[in-house]
Design a protein that fits this description.
Blueprint (H helix, E strand, L loop, with lengths): L4 E8 L3 H12 L4 E5 L5 H6 L1 H18 L15 H25 L3 E4 L2 E5 L2 E4 L4 E9 L3 E3 L12 E2 L1 H4 L8 E5 L3 H12 L3 E6 L10 H13 L3 E4 L3 E7 L2 E6 L4 E4 L1 E4 L3 E3 L32 E3 L10 H15 L14 E3 L4 E6 L2 H6 L4 E7 L4 H6 L5 E7 L5 E8 L2 H13 L4 H5 L10 H9 L9
Parallel strand pairs: 1-2, 1-6, 2-3, 6-17, 8-15, 9-10, 9-15, 10-11
Antiparallel strand pairs: 4-5, 5-6, 7-16, 12-13, 13-14, 18-19, 19-22, 20-21, 21-22
Helix pairs in contact: 1-8, 3-4, 3-6
Cofactor: FAD
InterPro entries: Class-I_Pyr_Nuc-Dis_Oxidored, FAD/NAD-bd_sf, FAD/NAD-binding_dom, FAD/NAD-linked_Rdtase_dimer_sf, Lipoamide_DH, Pyr_nuc-diS_OxRdtase, Pyr_nucl-diS_OxRdtase_dimer, Pyr_OxRdtase_I_AS
GO molecular function: dihydrolipoyl dehydrogenase (NADH) activity
Length: 461
């Protein structure tokens, strides 16, 4: 035991949940050790959120150039060099990774590079041969893309998000299996950059769980841009043949494409991280089981992020990491309210929301009233030439408490913040109406919508 380095907290995994907990704990004066088999930042920074959004920005720049004539700007036909886009993406990732590693080091966090296994009694073994011990342990090993039978990930015909984000050339034709957030984001960016895209979703609609009004706007945009959508049908297999492969659907139809992207969600990395001496319970689905304060079945051991069955969002991982450290410090630490977390979908148009839909509000015992402000009447939306979308606010009919905010349109993900705060502060329309909205801005749409809930309004009926 004398050879083991001891810490107040040892964190297994340096993705958003893990490094968030480490940074927060270190800022509180705790001695932190963290184990990461890859580069710090985890899936989000290395193979997920950040690189995907960098490519989506590439698509936005390309759209802007192609539409420049509408603003009186003449340019030659733009050409996408995806290899250059790949280089820029990697540059962004590398700079953020270096900055994060430097920040962790400046706060005294000791990082161990290698695979970690929790052995029990606070001890973690690292594949490099080192052994460390923590008074408390936080397991945040993250997740990986799911696959489906008959679709072995080979990097040539069948890809997951990991492989797509490493491409130097986009396929001419692609089938995206899965119409959730990941599938729709990849469909949007690949179509904008010139691929012929088909989305195949086994459920009756895209983006299950998202307000249907928002999804309808996105679907209309997808169809205008040539994205084919097949819902209510599964896939059974595929047959490669040279540069293409033929996908077989459950309804007996087929589709021939250059590549298939499997985007059906992610599964927790719980295999192999617990040794025989650990007494941590893992569910049949691979999620680590925790109580409301994220403590596992073994006292002093916590689990957060994609390893537990909560919303697989980087910012949720941050929040869970902060909550665990507060618990360890003996501070008041209410669990994350998952019904009110912000959701952001970076398709074109963007989608963002927090809180209840109208139906969910009814299910929770409220009598909801809904107000909607289409962006067609918003000055800034007209100026930038993107008027497809709206702000939709769900409130209690009697108290006018804001229960949910749903936005679809340009920069929706950036516009959500005041709506998210309103939902989580349980603010009323009357309270929010006192705040002056800057003009002309897209954010006026939220202000005008809540203003109309007071019974009087300016531009919103």
């Amino acid at each position: 035991m004398s050879e083991e380095q001891a810490f107040d907290i040892v964190v297994l995994g340096a993705g958003p949940a893990g490094y968030g907990a480490a940074l927060y704990g270190a800022s509180a004066g705790l001695k932190i050790g963290i184990v990461e088999r890859d580069r710090v930042g985890g899936t989000c920074l290395q193979r997920g959120c950040v690189p995907a959004k960098e490519y989506l920005e590439t698509a936005a720049v390309y759209r802007g150039i192609r539409g420049a004539a509408e603003f009186g700007i003449t340019s030659s036909d733009p050409v996408v060099d995806f290899a250059v886009s790949q280089q820029r993406k990697q540059s962004v990732v590398d700079k953020l990774t270096g900055g994060l590693a430097g920040l962790m080091k400046s706060r005294g966090i000791v990082t161990y590079q290698g695979n970690g296994t929790y052995l029990g009694a606070g001890r973690i073994s690292v594949s490099t041969g080192e052994s460390i011990v923590g008074d408390k342990v936080i397991v945040a090993a993250g997740s990986r893309p799911r696959s489906i039978p008959g679709f072995d990930i080979d990097g040539k015909y069948v890809l997951t998000s990991d492989e797509v984000l490493s491409l130097t050339e986009l396929p001419k034709t692609v089938a995206i299996v899965g119409g959730g957030v990941i599938g729709c984001e990849f469909a949007s960016l690949m179509a904008d950059l010139g691929s012929s895209v088909t989305i195949i979703e086994a459920l009756p609609r895209l983006l299950p769980g998202v307000d249907q009004d928002l999804v309808d706007v996105m679907v209309r945009s997808f169809k205008k841009r040539g994205i084919a959508i097949k819902t209510g049908v599964g896939v059974t297999g595929h047959t490669p043949d040279g540069a293409v492969t033929t996908l077989t659907l459950a309804d007996g139809s087929s589709l021939t494409v250059n590549q298939i992207v499997v985007a059906i969600g992610r599964q927790p990395n719980s295999e192999g991280i617990f040794g025989d001496g650990a007494s941590v319970t893992v569910s049949d689905r691979g999620f680590v089981e925790v109580d409301q304060h994220y403590q596992t079945s073994e006292p002093g051991v916590y689990a957060i992020g994609d390893l537990i069955d909560t919303a697989q969002l980087a910012h949720v991982g941050f929040a869970e990491g902060v909550a665990v450290v507060k618990t360890i410090l003996g501070e008041a630490s209410p669990p994350v309210d998952y019904s009110r977390v912000p959701w952001c979908i970076y398709t074109h148009p963007e989608i963002a929301f927090a809180g209840f839909t109208e139906q969910q509000a009814r299910e929770h015992g409220f009598d909801p009233i809904v107000k909607k402000d289409p962006l067609g009447g918003n000055s800034r939306a007209r100026i930038i030439g993107e008027v497809d979308g709206f702000v939709k606010v769900v409130a209690d009919r009697v108290t006018h408490q804001v229960l949910g905010v749903h936005i679809v349109g340009p920069w929706a993900t950036e516009l959500l913040s005041p709506g998210y705060l309103a939902v989580n502060w349980e603010a009323s329309a009357e309270e929010l109406a006192q705040f002056i909205q800057p003009h002309p801005t897209l954010s006026e749409a939220f202000g005008e919508t809540v203003f109309s809930l007071t019974g009087r309004s300016l531009h919103v009926g």
